[in-house]
Amino acid sequence: MASCITKDQIEFNIEKIRRFAASELQQLAKSKLPFCYQIGADTLMVGRYCVEKHCDNHWSVKTEYGTQHFYYRKNAIFYCIALHINQMRSAIKIQDCDAKLSQLESDAVVFRYQYKRANQCNNDFRASLFSTRYEETMYKIELTKEELWKSSNLAKYLQM
C-alpha cells in the first residue's frame, strides 16, 4: 500500500533537517579543532568564524572582535585557525603580513609599469631607478611570504 506525502510534510521534513544541520554546526564550532565548511560559492565557516568574499575579491572575517578584512582567502582561513586555537600573536601577524603583501604586490605592478615606460622613452636613469625598486619590492614580497608561511604553519600545528 502506497502512502501519500503532502507538500506540508515535505516542507516540515526539510525544516527539521535544516534545524538538525544548524545544531550540528554549532556543536562542531565548539570543538577544540577547527573545521572548514563551505556554504555556497562565496562563504566559508572556519570553526566559529565566517569568511565571506566581497565583490572586489577581498575577504572579510566576522569574529567576536569585529570584522577583519583580508586580500587573500588562504590568509583569512589561517587567521581563523589561529584565533580558534587562541594564537592571537600568530593571528595578528597573519593579518599584518596579508596587508603588507597586498601593498607590496601593488607597488611591484606600478614599478614594473614605470620601468617599461622608461625603457620606451629611452630614459636610462628612470629605467634603472624603477628596475631597482622593482627588484627590492620583489625581495620584500619573498620575505613577507616567508613570514606568512611561518605564521600560518604555527597556527596550523599548534594546539592549545
Strand and helix map with partners:
Elements: H1 7-29, E1 36-39, E2 43-46, E3 49-53, E4 59-63, E5 66-70, H2 73-84, H3 88-120, H4 124-157
Antiparallel strand pairs: 1-2, 2-3, 3-4, 4-5
Verbal overview:
With 160 residues, this protein is α+β, with helices and mostly antiparallel strands. It contains four helices and five strands; from the N terminus they run H-E-E-E-E-E-H-H-H. It has one domain (34-157). Helices cover 64% and strands 14% of the residues. A hairpin with a 5-residue loop joins strand 3 and strand 4. Helix 2 (73-84) runs antiparallel to helix 3 and helix 3 packs antiparallel against helix 4 (124-157). The longest helix is centred in the C-terminal third of the chain and has 34 residues, at 124-157.
How many H/I helical runs?
A: 4
The separation of the N and C termini measures 57 Å
Structural class: alpha+beta
Assembly context of the chains: single chain
The total strand number stands at 5
How do the strands of the widest beta sheet line up side by side? 1-2-3-4-5
Q: Spell out the helices and strands N to C.
A: HEEEEEHHH
State the major sheet. Answer: 5 strands, antiparallel
Brief account:
Helices cover 64% and strands 14% of the residues. It has 160 residues and is of the alpha+beta class.
